[in-house]
Design a protein that fits this description.
- This protein has about 200 residues and is an alpha/beta fold.
- It is about 35% helix and about 15% strand.
- The protein is built from 6 helices and 6 strands; from the N terminus they run E-H-H-E-H-E-H-E-H-E-E-H.
- A 6-stranded mixed sheet has the order 3-2-4-1-5-6.
- Helix 2 packs across helix 6.
Amino acid sequence: MSKELYLVRHGKTMFNEKRVIQGWCDAPLTTEGEQQAARIGRYFLQENITFDHAYTSTLTRTQQTMERITDMPYDRVEDLREWGFGAFEGERVDLMPPFPWVDFYVPFGGEAQLDVRKRVCNALTDIMSRPDHEKVLVVSHGSACREFLTQWVPDGGYDRGGVPGNCSIMRFTFEDDAFCLQEIIEQQRLVELLGE
């Protein structure tokens, strides 16, 4: 029997708004980001979707997102963090090269693309392989989610830089150590589903 993973990108942050690279450095959610996360919580309530476990990265913006979605306890997992951009952290997004970034950030103290992908995929596989984890909520980051999607949805265009928007829900099934994307629900669709 397959399990379910609900993978959520964190809500909009101050750095998202200012177009600043935030990788492993942190920025708080904006008011809009808080509202986005609360909207997910209302959607889960409306659809009677509950979870047996919840996880975030160790960065504050994912924890703030989780706490506005649900009041259930959650664990922090370092390997769910965003791509580490090294010396580019805190700089303007305009300085980023065209995607794919491959090993661009490595000489600047950042991570290689395949290392990010392996780290995130291994963390989510480990979480979903646990025996009492049937329906799990995880809040992570844009580039981390994109690398996970690239691994499991190879024809989805994510290898060209596409990434779901802030506070999007990516629902996967997990069976025989493999993930299968079922749907992506963006914020505008949540507004429609909730009649807001």
